[in-house]
């Protein structure tokens, strides 16, 4: 039950963070996309909070799967199905598992595997995966070094921020930004930016 509460706190904190950063994310998306990433994420997570408010969940996997399904159904655009699949697979991987740094690491990998299965991005394509990939590596390294969950998530968030920053010079090869070709260079990727917010929020709340 304590775990269900902690993961619920994460989703609520994330919803607030995405709401507060909505204009910023949309501004990033206006440079290389269609100026809706902030609105998409905000709408999706407000819907997740509405679900949390009206339902109670017995297990972490039920909670996360419901969040994932809500994102898939409420958010148009690329990011809804991608983040929705992340939460669906992240939750599924935690079914019946004790919450430990190791099991959460496996679940993060499963979630990101879902993003790749849907989006087919590769490292350097200037997508959210450019934040997720270094985050997974940093998480594993932290766990191998004996970090607790909050420490490993903190390391993952820091690595995601570096990956986010490194998207700026890249030319997009996936998603709407790829339509701009070379002109997509010089702008930070919106999805890599929201992924960093997801992990920073997790590090704050899943102690
Ligand atoms: P849309 O591009 O449909 O308007 P959003 O603006 O909500 O959707 O999200 C855009 C973000 O989605 C991009 O910044 C990028 O990080 C991510 N993205 C787009 N396509 C892919 C993909 N194939 N794989 C991974 N991430 C992707
Ligand atoms: Mg967009």
TrEMBL record:
Gene3D superfamilies: 1.25.40.340. Residues 5-204 form the DhaL domain. Keywords: Kinase, Transferase. It comes from the Bacteria. The keyword tRNA processing does not apply. GO terms for molecular function: kinase activity. Coiled coil: none annotated. PROSITE patterns: DHAL. This is Dihydroxyacetone kinase subunit DhaL. It comes from Kribbella alba. The gene is dhaL.
């Amino acid at each position: 039950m304590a775990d269900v509460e902690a993961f619920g706190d994460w989703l609520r904190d994330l919803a607030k963070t995405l709401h507060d950063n909505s204009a910023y994310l949309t501004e990033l998306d206006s440079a290389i996309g269609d100026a809706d990433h902030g609105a998409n994420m905000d709408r999706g997570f407000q819907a997740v909070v509405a679900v949390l408010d009206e339902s109670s969940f017995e297990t972490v996997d039920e909670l996360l799967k419901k969040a994932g399904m809500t994102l898939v159904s409420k958010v148009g655009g690329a990011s809804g199905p991608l983040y929705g699949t992340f939460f669906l697979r992240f939750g599924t991987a935690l079914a019946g598992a004790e919450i430990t740094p190791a099991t959460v690491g496996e679940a993060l990998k499963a979630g990101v595997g879902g993003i790749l299965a849907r989006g087919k991005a590769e490292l350097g394509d200037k997508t959210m995966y450019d934040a997720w990939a270094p985050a997974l590596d940093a998480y594993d390294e932290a766990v191998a070094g004996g970090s607790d969950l909050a420490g490993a998530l903190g390391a993952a968030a820091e690595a995601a921020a570096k990956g986010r920053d490194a998207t700026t010079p890249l030319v997009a090869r996936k998603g709407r930004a790829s339509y701009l070709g070379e002109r997509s260079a010089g702008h930070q990727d919106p999805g890599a930016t929201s992924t960093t917010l997801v992990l920073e929020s997790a590090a704050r709340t899943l102690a």
